[in-house]
Write a structure and sequence with these properties.
Order of helices and strands: HEHHEEEEEHEEEHEHEEEHHHHHEHEH
Strand content: 15-25%
Number of strands: 15
CATH architecture of the largest domain: 2-Layer Sandwich
Length: 402
């Protein structure tokens, strides 16, 4: 299989592939209309995707005049990607085919405060088991997308944070996992990955924001089909938007940041200050487990639990108004394991606040939705990053290609 020269409009390939995946079967004319590209440019992009073996013709439809239009579809089994979302409290791994279908999923333990070498060895073993369970040819596996929190140096494949232990700072996470698995590893911000995961499943449009909450709070934005990364791939730090300008100092250097006052950890800490509530809900595990127990109780009508979730949701809404005002998106998607139980409660509060307070509310409404699988979205997006990296490379070529 031949490779391509550097003249390729590489980001175009990822956008075109996303549209074909979402629509199932689509003509070149429809693709050109959907992207605003010229028919000639679209034909060029489709030829490149066809030469890569990622798409093929799947039929024809009558045209108003002239020859029938040829329909292009995804070759679902052309390649496979592994996606892993990892934080301190939980991890999810998936094997995904080119159509975005999850072939295998594993729920895994989080990093905790274990030695990082042990964490990587555990991840590598899960990856091997998932690929064995998926029974896919090894030479069709493009690599692993590892979605985790930041700040991080995406290009170097390292996390730049002393949490949950100082060992994380500068640890060669991507390179170490690649060595342990024999597969290329791409590091990605978990919130950005969640956005790419939502995009893979389709239905959210080409521009939307993501509010991600698992061990903490993060944010991501997809604009015109592409993730907004900022200068260092650490853009949209929603958890460090100030919601109280005169609030307590945050370790980031700001004051009154969202995550330390409204994230899962402070919600759990407040619940534990109430012994009767903590006992009633059975709290005392890790932060994420306890937070979801509080969320479940709130959803089921426990007044004290509901008050904690409502306070968190309102503060999150304040920060999300700022996010929407900055990027002028019309859709916000909630993703992350902390939304597993109380996601609908957060959704309702955010949508009410946004449509009351967003600057452009008189021009357009803002829809707030839960990701199809809040716990899986970032892992699915991690897998999508692997393919996107291939398509954005100067000479894209599938593993195992001749």
């Amino acid at each position: 299989m031949r490779s391509f020269g550097a003249d390729t409009r590489l980001p175009t390939l990822a956008v075109v592939l996303d549209i074909i995946r979402e629509r199932g079967a689509v003509s070149r004319v429809e693709l050109a209309d959907a992207t605003g590209m010229t028919p000639a440019t679209m034909t060029h992009a489709v030829r490149k995707l066809t030469a890569l073996g990622l798409v093929h013709e799947v039929g024809t439809v009558p045209a108003n005049r002239g020859t029938p239009r040829r329909l292009i579809g995804i070759k679902a089994d052309a390649c496979y990607m592994v996606g892993v979302q990892l934080d301190q409290f939980a991890a999810v791994g998936v094997v995904v085919d080119l159509a975005g279908r999850v072939v295998v999923r594993h729920d895994m333990p989080g990093a905790g405060k274990r030695a990082l070498a042990d964490v990587v060895a555990d991840l590598a073993e899960h990856v091997r088991t998932m690929l064995k369970d998926a029974a896919v040819p090894g030479d069709k596996v493009l690599g692993i997308g590892l979605a985790t929190y930041g700040p991080q140096d995406r290009e170097a494949g390292v996390v730049i944070t002393p949490h949950p232990t100082p060992e994380w700072t500068g640890y060669p996470l991507a390179a170490t996992l690649a060595e342990a698995t024999g597969l290329p590893v791409a590091l990605e911000n978990d919130a950005t990955a969640a956005g790419l995961g939502v995009q893979t499943l389709g239905g959210s449009g080409s521009s939307f924001a993501v509010v991600f909450m698992s061990g903490g709070i993060g944010g991501g934005v997809i604009l015109d089909g592409h993730p907004y990364r900022g200068v260092t791939s650490n853009g949209v730090e929603l958890g460090h938007i100030s919601v109280d300008a005169l609030g307590a100092d945050c370790s980031c250097g700001n004051r009154g940041c969202l995550d330390p006052v409204a994230g899962p950890r402070p919600v759990v800490e407040r619940a534990l200050e109430n012994p009767a509530l903590a006992a009633r809900l059975g709290l005392g595990a890790d932060t994420l487990t306890d937070f979801n127990l509080i969320g479940r109780a709130a959803r089921e009508g426990d007044a004290e639990a509901a008050a904690l979730i409502a306070d968190s949701a309102q503060r999150l809404a304040v920060a999300t108004v700022t996010l929407v005002n900055m990027f002028d998106v019309g859709r916000v998607v909630l993703a992350g394991q902390a939304f597993s139980e109380a996601g609908q409660l957060y959704r309702d509060v955010l949508e009410e606040w946004l449509n009351r307070s967003v600057f452009m509310r008189h021009v357009h409404t803002v829809e707030v939705a839960l990701a199809d699988d809040v716990a899986q979205a970032a892992a699915l997006g991690g897998a999508a990053v692997v393919l996107r990296n291939l398509l954005e490379s100067p000479n894209p070529e599938l593993r195992g290609a001749a």
